[in-house]
Amino acid sequence: MAAAVRRSGHARLKAALVLRDALAAELGISLAAAMAQLRTVENHIGAAHGLSDGRYLEAMASVCSGDAHHLSTLDDEVREACGRVRLAPRYAQYLALMLFAHWLDAQRDDAAALLLRLNAWLEAHKPKGEAVPAFVEADLQLAAFWMATAAGKTHVLHACLALLENEHAGFGRGLKRWSWDRILVITPSEALTRQHADKLRALSTWEVFAYPMDGDAAAIPRLPPDAVIVLDINKLASEKKGDGVTVPTSVFADGRNLVFVDEGHKGQKSEASVWKALQSDLAGINAPMPAHRGLLIEFSATFGQVAEGEHAFDRYAKAVIFDYAYDRFHQDRYGKDFWHVRVQAREDASVMAQRQTLTAALLAYWHQVACFRSAAGKKAAGRLGLQVAPPLWVLLGLSVIGSQKSESDKQQTSDVVEVLSYLSTTLAQPTRLTESLNQLLTATTTGTDMLPAEVRQATVGWAADDLAARVLADCFSWQPGDKPVLRLIKAAAGELGLGLLRGDTSHYYGVVNVGDAAGLKKALEKTGLPVEEDAMSASLFAQLDAPANVSGGLNVLIGSRRFAEGWDNYRASSLTLLRLGQGEGSLIIQMFGRVVRFAGKDGDGKRLDKPPAELAPLQTAYVFGLKSGYLDTFLQSLIDNGVPDLQRISCDVRQHTPPVLRAVSAIAPDARDFQVSAIGSGWLTGINKVTVSLTASIATSRLRDGTVAVVQGTVGKDITADFRRWAVLLDRNGVYREMVEWKRSKRWWNFAFDRPAIDGALASEKYEILGLPGMLDVRDAADLLRLNRLASSVVRQLFESAYRKQESRKSRYALIDASLSGIPEQYYKEFQHAP
Fold this sequence. Notes:
It is a single chain. Helix 6 (about 70-85) packs across helix 8 (about 155-170). A hairpin with a 2-residue loop joins strand 26 and strand 27. By secondary structure, this protein is α/β, with parallel strands linked by helices. It is built from 28 helices and 31 strands. Strands 10, 12, 13, 14, 15, 16, 17, 18, 19, 21, 25, 26, 27 and 29 form a 14-stranded mixed beta sheet that branches.
């Protein structure tokens, strides 16, 4: 019997969205059929005409078995709201707004009757395997939109605000108007507060007050009721403490508040979460006085992951109005395709694997830059109307860069120091990049490659030194003689500029978002990388959006949470993963969403179905992991949020071995029954050749149009000659001592060897070494230690071969029952699986 596939929180919640399904049933539509019809309209005539020409309404009416007049009324409301916020909704946004408008209308008409109908639906359609409790009155104050990053959550938020303002103004049938004492938008950070405020102001529809940028807390009570107050959750508290910018929730008490929460998954760490309690308090959830009961409307891409491990499953099963998570988003060709490689090496090969991973990531990024700047790429993009931003190489983790407070922070800082050391060395000594490129491009691979096929093809015909110079020039604006510099930007807290010094002038090619500038400076200086200070330059992070960067400039961003949450930019094209903390699944999904954001054709957000070769890399996100474990964490988070993968399941073997069927089994002799001698070099005669493998395993995966293609392989080549070249440096006495200790640990008292046996083994032709190119180059003491460990591995395997050969001569054989012969109890099979 096959083992059951674990259902992620995403899959469980997706199958238990009782509010969404009940609302669709009340409208008389099948969600799947409605989405298919609406998608067809958008694909054929575009989102703008779908709404303005009434084609969206026609599509829904074609699959509606309910009240067509009511459907038309809802369409009028949605049309009016979208007009106010200048939104031409994509089909998923339109359907989400139609369901939300019905939810509002049903409450306005008769909230008690709606509650009865919802519970009747829940009783008749209980989610399989889940125990969702009955709806209560407070549940009608909660709504949630589960939408992928870049799916347009902010636009939907604005349209929802307009719908509720329409109700306030008596729009539609004009019954039982909504009224609000305060309208609030709660964000997770000050940066997102600014972003939301700017977008709301651009609509010229509402008065907007961004706290604390637009004034202190004393100004809030004087604002009109229809002003939109935008502030981040960190500025709220149950009571004022000290002289800081914290706003007590009492400022908003004794009123009916409309509260929108961006990144609504935050604050779910426990049922007693302070943040969630503050949000509920602001919205008057289940307030004793009905006049104080408002609405709480949340938006997030990761409700599924939150529902899995953070006690919020029932809440969102009864609150999600519509779901358009990443699985559907990608299948509709929104955002980029993505390709990733997982390189896993053991022991001494891991250091070289990390260096080659960085070189492969740099080369993949260079290919995107080359395609973007090519005449063919520009011409094709112009002809097709494809909007493509200048590529940006993003190296990202989720811990505090520079901090030493936790193990996660220390590892993240270590990773950043390693990356900066790699970049500084590469720019100061271009021959090191030449060596690394030569090793990467000449390595023997089986099954798959460390590079995407299109990147590999782009390197054909290049000499390694010429390619290195072109990569450095295109990606960093490097010229021969340039010297790398690292500078703390004094005018921008937490920024480290990555620059090149050319004579008396310098320019920056990248920026690091530093959590602890002093800590990172100290860590860098320990490795011999000096850090200067720049008192003149403005924020580099802010310049990443500037048009001046189209033809060069800032091309590298090393960051953490600041990038993951809410950076509204299309430049990120290639992602290299640094430290990812445990339990950071929601942030990982947001981080991924930033990299797959895509402007698309005429700004429609869609990638091309069949892009020309020069544009395909620009609508593909290349993902690498500095360490294989980082990529594992990243990919598991994607899978848990609906991105399809190849799932491996175990199946039981049904054994059928007739009693007459027998098998032969070898029985090893007692160690006292034989002796093994490895003296001098004569003992090697008759010994089979052994292989010491230090290769790396590779697994590449490409997601394209909802289909995953996974290929596995290895990378490495015969490096025996390199080993022999450095053999003169070996500490052979040290190898002998290690073999003595190894023999003791094996308890092979019947095995004798001498010091010359070590020399004989290393000088023989009885071994081969497979590994990553360049891993045996000796530059420092650490390289020499690695060389000696490899010598010990060679001798140990030859000693084991000699011992097993003599042991097998003394073995005896017996017949045993076939069922005891080692027939596997399970086998494995793979299939594409979307949680």
